[in-house]
Design goal:
With 200 residues, the protein is mainly α. It contains eight helices and no strands. It has helices spanning 2-9, 17-54, 59-62, 65-88, 92-131, 135-171, 176-182, 185-198. The chain is elongated. Residues 34-200 form the G-protein coupled receptors family 1 profile domain. The chain crosses the membrane at residues 26-47, 68-87, 93-120, 141-169, 181-198. Its main location: membrane. Keywords: Cell membrane, G-protein coupled receptor, Glycoprotein, Membrane, Receptor, Transducer, Transmembrane, Transmembrane helix.
Amino acid sequence: ETLFMLLLEHEMMVVQPTTVMHLDNAMDMLICSSLMSSLSFLGVIAIDRYITIFYALRYHSIMTIQRAVTIIVVVWVVSSISSTIFIAYDGKAVILCLVIFFLSMITLIMGLYIHMFSLAHQHARRISSLQRKQSAPHFTSMRGAITLTILLGVFFICWGPFFLHLILILTCPEKPACNCYFRYFNLYLILLICNSVVDP
């Protein structure tokens, strides 16, 4: 999308206004479906890790290859259909739906990881009480807390600016301060891509 915008701005590509509108809709649909699928997969990964910890012995019977493939296909199909509907009904309701979806995923991911962390902390305390060592649970808890902070911190740093952008579109689209924030939209998209690259 950025490439097309630059080519159009510098008049290196001349197309009809209707073609530009169709290109813009297609690009927005791709971006929207990618955002929804990325968020959905982060949620699915959190659920997968949760099953790995809480149902370790039954994991391979719960998460079969067939189920994994089905989940992947469903996420992409639902994301594509939703993004098509969103672009067709372009407006504030769409942005509100995206923000609600983002907040739901944050709640799910944070809830699962915090629950996993608390289980690991209790497990380390039990092991240390059996071995009569007091240093182990504190060290393990610190490592777990650091890992959890990095995991959720990277998520918030990468996804937060984009969804703040959407929230500002809903709340203050005309204010100069908000307009200043809107200028860096491409940077927020780059951060989203970075999350997929650096996700621990």
